[in-house]
Specification:
- By secondary structure, the chain is of the alpha+beta class.
- It has a domain of 113 residues: H-NOX domain (Alpha-Beta Complex), CATH 3.90.1520.
- Helix content is 44%, strand content 16%.
- It has a 5-stranded antiparallel beta sheet with strand order 1-2-4-3-5.
- Helix 1 runs parallel beside helix 3, helix 2 packs across helix 3 and helix 4 crosses helix 7.
- The longest helix is centred in the middle third of the chain and has 28 residues.
- The chain is globular.
- It starts with a helix and ends in an 18-residue tail after the last strand.
């Protein structure tokens, strides 16, 4: 991945904790501030940082990926990439439709990037279904977090669940008002309950916040 994702992780950590915590994480991961550059890095470098964050705050890798993903939207806007959202659409649905086109346009400036693919396969009054495909594995919760951040950006409260699908990973985004009930523990074992997105005022206060353990 490009160093921008590491900068997003740094921003999330400093907002939740402080710069000293980030310095500790870099040291624990055997990395330096060079990972914040615009260079391309092996996914192993990214995961070492994620795991160091998880250890520092007593979270799982998936929890950290989700938190960083949710912070990603606000971070990219603050870094001057708000034109991406302006051009991709003024609603959540339009943005989801245009995700692949947006990623394709970024390959000009990010030639080494391994871009994922997103296909909006269903749109109803109840919500959306999206197929996520990637050559990478292990980033589904990062995508989950990004979708949560997008829901907040477009002021569209959603429940988000995802499951493995023969075509990739299927994300279901349901408008909160369209659901009469949803269980924390699905009885059929098919779905993993994901983010119950509620407008919070700031995505820097995610559903699973970090607290220091050391």
């Amino acid at each position: 991945m490009y160093g921008l994702i590491h900068k997003a992780a740094r921003s999330a950590v400093i907002n939740i904790s402080d710069k000293n915590s980030w310095d500790d994480i870099l040291s624990d991961a055997g990395q330096s501030e060079v990972v914040l550059s615009a260079d391309y890095y092996d996914d192993e470098v990214t995961m070492r940082l994620v795991d160091a964050v998880a250890t520092k705050f007593g979270k799982s890798r998936d929890e950290v990926l989700k938190i960083v993903g949710e912070h990603w939207v606000e971070f990219t806007v603050s870094e001057g990439y708000n034109s991406i959202f302006t051009h991709a659409g003024d609603t959540l649905e339009k943005f989801l439709i245009n995700l692949d086109r947006m990623h394709n346009s970024l390959t000009v400036t990010l030639p080494n990037a391994v871009m994922p693919s997103f296909q909006l396969i269903k749109s109803t009054n109840e919500g959306f279904e999206l197929i996520y495909r990637s050559q990478r594995t292990g980033f589904a919760t990062f995508v989950e977090g990004i979708l949560m951040g997008l829901c907040e950006y477009y002021n569209t409260p959603m429940h988000i669940i995802f499951e493995d699908d023969k075509d990739g990973i299927r994300f279901s985004l349901k408008h909160r008002q369209s659901l009469t009930s949803i269980s924390e523990n699905s009885t059929d074992g098919k779905y993993k309950l994901s983010g119950d997105f509620v407008l919070k005022g700031s995505i820097l206060n995610p559903p699973m916040t970090m607290s220091k353990t050391a």
